[in-house]
């Protein structure tokens, strides 16, 4: 009986399947299938596709009189025409050539980028952007870079003279050169620093070779010896004219900066930049002392202390060579001491004490310092 039921069920299923197949055959159709959207597990590329083998190109060292341009190629790796239109550019870059028509699939088209380097000296990086109808890459930025031979330059480009001794003049040289002009003339040399002297002579061949220059001058500058104490920032300005046809001119500014040391310096752990020696508030009977270093830079450096003036009078001050023999170099030690038996007092702020060291030096006749300290009375200390 069970076997009979199995046979009946199987027969019914076979009849139903045959009917379904017959229906498809009569209609000439096939069972519905999902659209193939993948090949080998990757999305099928449809529409235009922009590919650029090189988006950056270095032109190396270029002459300012020569064209500065490069042609890039954009390839269409898609299956529909690729449109290319102009986008934005940097201030000195233009797109001079675009494909004449849309780029067919499998083909490529040129994009020519040109840069204006007439006013450029040295390194440059210029960019241009093109627009495409490729939704995956709607913009393409193309870059050209290089180094324009300098029409005029200076080496070093800035003069820095640090820690000049007071009263001393200083001389320094800079090479004024051109990598583009075979010959040039320097005119209208002006200095913002009164007393600065300069001298021009042809630059040595080895200096020009190191700078890869075609022509140049050696500029020797001498600073005056009467510069005031502190930092200075000046400049030497000159007009440079090419001897080639067209007589192109440039203005070159050569910065000259530095600092002049003070004729004397006093420094130590307890002295600030305003020359105030801080000994702090002191308990009665405590006392305090500090050691300062005094440096005389003007000649003669070996000095004699004529007298020491101090306020308050109970301060103990001694001046001596820092070590045996350092007086010849102008280096002395100044010991300042508040003795333990100093009375209660207040020499803080506007009531600061004073210390004057009078010397026999012609340009540094005296050294003035202020001292801040206070000695608390025993009565204040005992107040609960």
How would you portray this structure in words?
With 384 residues, this protein is mainly β. It has three domains: 50-148, Immunoglobulin-like, CATH 2.60.40; 153-260, Sandwich (Immunoglobulin-like), CATH 2.60.40.10; 264-382, Immunoglobulins (Immunoglobulin-like), CATH 2.60.40. Helix content is 10%, strand content 49%. The protein has three helices and 27 strands. The strands form seven sheets. Strands 20, 22, 25, 26 and 27 form a five-stranded mixed β-sheet that branches. Strands 3-5-8-7 form a four-stranded antiparallel β-sheet, with no helix packed on it. A hairpin with a 6-residue loop joins strand 26 and strand 27 (366-375). It starts with a helix and ends with a helix.
Describe the secondary-structure layout.
Layout: H1 2-27, E1 38-39, E2 42-43, E3 50-52, E4 56-62, E5 68-76, E6 84-89, E7 93-97, E8 108-115, E9 122-132, E10 139-148, E11 153-155, E12 159-164, E13 170-178, E14 184-191, E15 197-202, H2 205-210, E16 215-223, E17 230-242, E18 249-260, E19 264-267, E20 276-282, E21 288-296, E22 305-311, E23 316-321, E24 331-338, E25 345-347, E26 353-359, E27 366-375, H3 378-382
Parallel strand pairs: 4-10, 12-18, 20-27
Antiparallel strand pairs: 1-2, 3-5, 5-8, 6-9, 7-8, 9-10, 11-13, 13-16, 14-17, 15-16, 17-18, 19-21, 21-24, 22-26, 23-24, 25-27, 26-27
Number of domains: 3
CATH architecture tag of the largest domain: Sandwich
Instruction: Tell me the fraction of residues in β-strands, as a range.
Output: over 45%
Please give the share of residues in helix: under 10%
Radius of gyration computed on alpha carbons:
43 Å
Helix-strand makeup class: mainly beta
- Uncertain ranges: 1-42
- The averaged pLDDT comes out at 84
- The CATH homologous superfamily name of the largest domain equals Immunoglobulins
Q: Largest sheet, if any? A: 5 strands, mixed
- The total beta strand count reads 27
**Highest CATH level, the class of the largest domain:** Mainly Beta
């Amino acid at each position: 009986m069970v076997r009979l039921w199995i046979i009946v069920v199987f027969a019914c299923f076979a009849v139903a399947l045959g009917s379904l197949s017959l229906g498809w055959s009569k209609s000439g159709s096939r069972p519905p299938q999902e659209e193939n959207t993948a090949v080998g597990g990757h999305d099928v590329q449809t529409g235009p596709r922009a590919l650029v083998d090189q988006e950056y190109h270095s032109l190396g060292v270029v002459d300012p009189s020569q064209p500065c341009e490069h042609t890039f190629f954009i390839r269409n790796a898609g299956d529909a025409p690729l449109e290319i239109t102009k986008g934005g550019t940097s201030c000195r870059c233009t797109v001079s050539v675009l494909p004449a028509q849309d780029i067919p699939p499998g083909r490529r088209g040129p994009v020519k980028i040109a840069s204006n380097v007439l006013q450029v000296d040295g390194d440059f990086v210029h960019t241009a952007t093109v627009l495409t109808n490729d939704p995956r890459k709607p913009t393409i930025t193309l870059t050209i870079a290089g180094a324009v031979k300098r029409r005029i330059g200076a080496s070093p480009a800035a003069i820095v003279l640090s820690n000049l001794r007071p009263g001393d003049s200083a001389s320094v040289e800079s090479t004024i050169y051109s990598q583009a002009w075979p010959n040039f003339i320097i005119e209208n040399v002006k200095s913002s620093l009164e007393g600065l002297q300069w001298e021009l002579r042809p630059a040595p061949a080895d200096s020009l070779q190191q700078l890869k220059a075609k022509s140049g001058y050696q500029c020797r500058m001498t600073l005056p010896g009467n510069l005031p104490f502190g930092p200075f920032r000046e400049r030497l300005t000159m007009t440079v004219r090419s001897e080639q046809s067209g007589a192109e001119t440039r203005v070159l500014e050569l910065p000259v900066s530095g600092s002049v040391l003070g004729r004397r310096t006093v420094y130590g752990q307890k002295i600030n930049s305003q020359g105030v020696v801080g000994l702090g508030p002191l308990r009665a009977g405590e006392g305090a002392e500090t050691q300062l270093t005094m440096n005389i830079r003007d000649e003669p450096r070996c000095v004699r202390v004529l007298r020491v003036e101090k306020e308050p009078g109970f301060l103990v001050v001694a001046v001596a060579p820092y070590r045996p023999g350092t007086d010849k170099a102008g280096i002395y030690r100044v010991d300042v001491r508040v003795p333990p038996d100093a009375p209660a007092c207040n020499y803080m702020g506007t009531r600061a004490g004073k210390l004057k060291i009078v010397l026999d030096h012609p340009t540094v006749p005296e050294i003035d310092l202020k001292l801040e300290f206070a000695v608390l009375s025993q009565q204040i200390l005992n107040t609960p």
